[in-house]
Amino acid sequence: MKKLSARRRHPLAALVVLLFALAATGGLYAAFAPADKAEAEPVAQSLAIEEGKKLYAVGCASCHGTGGQGTTDGPSLVGVGSAAVDFQVGTGRMPLQQPGAQAPDKPNVYTQAEIDQLAAYIASLGPGPVTPTEEQYSPEGADIANGGELFRTNCAQCHNFTGQGGALTEGKYAPDLEDVDPKHIYEAMQTGPQNMPSFPDQVLPEQEKQDIIAYLDTVNSEDSETPGGFALGGFGPVTEGLFAWTFGLGAMIVVAIWVAARTAKAKKS
């Protein structure tokens, strides 16, 4: 009996029990903790959609229809994605102040949390471009030279060479891109708002979008200098040459007339 009791109270038995308890606790946590997290995310998303639906009913449904199907006063929002909502509402273009050739940017009327809720509801109507993360639109480490080449090829025709905007037809215009949030520039390239064509990742990959944003950030920064003095709207050498010809040639004509008048006066005397 003495030997059996000693075997049952062996010190290793307590260690084995402790290790077993720790392994069981870790296994239970691994089994149940991820499930709780996975369940919490859909619940939070559902709540955001419900709140967004309420905001939509008050501020958007009168133009875009009760289910986002569109009306004669506003286009369908099915499939535009959360990126379009974040851009249009985040820049104040929507809700539209009054009908016109183009929706101008203005101070927004929603908080970012409300914009996210609206975006969640619109995204639930159909798949579309997703609101980018900060990592996607950050200009840090991007290729500025490549961004300049891409911008001149794809964007300068409307926004001019430094993104200062320009007039289009029928009262429309390409807006000034100075001081525009990089996220909104990225979203505009994704979604093609109003008169602008869209540049999805298949056409303009994420890295190239970042390069363009970095280029605009550089040419419109306070540290950038305009070679030759006045920027003249950033329209480039054609405009600068026209300016020089107009005023330079005009000055030469004035001088020539003055010299001719002085010469004629001298001959008479």
Automatic annotation (TrEMBL):
Pfam families: Cytochrom_C (PF00034), Cytochrome_CBB3 (PF13442). Its EC number is 7.1.1.8. It comes from the Bacteria. InterPro entries: bc1_cytC-su (IPR009152), Cyt_c-like_dom (IPR009056), Cyt_c-like_dom_sf (IPR036909), Cytochrome_c_Oxidase_Subunit (IPR050597). Residues 1-30 form the signal peptide. It is an enzyme of class 7 (translocase). Keywords: Cell membrane, Electron transport, Heme, Iron, Membrane, Metal-binding, Repeat, Respiratory chain, Signal, Translocase, Transmembrane, Transmembrane helix, Transport. Its main location: membrane. The chain crosses the membrane at residues 242-261. It is found in: Cell membrane. The keyword Heme applies. It is a multi-pass membrane protein. PROSITE patterns: CYTC (PS51007). It catalyses: a quinol + 2 Fe(III)-[cytochrome c](out) = a quinone + 2 Fe(II)-[cytochrome c](out) + 2 H(+)(out). Residues 47-126, 142-220 form the Cytochrome c domain. The cytochrome bc1 complex is composed of a cytochrome b (QcrB), the Rieske iron-sulfur protein (QcrA) and a diheme cytochrome c (QcrC) subunit. PANTHER family: CBB3-TYPE CYTOCHROME C OXIDASE SUBUNIT FIXP, CYTOCHROME BC1 COMPLEX CYTOCHROME C SUBUNIT. This is Cytochrome bc1 complex cytochrome c subunit. It comes from Streptomyces lycii. The lineage of its organism: Bacteria, Bacillati, Actinomycetota, Actinomycetes, Kitasatosporales.
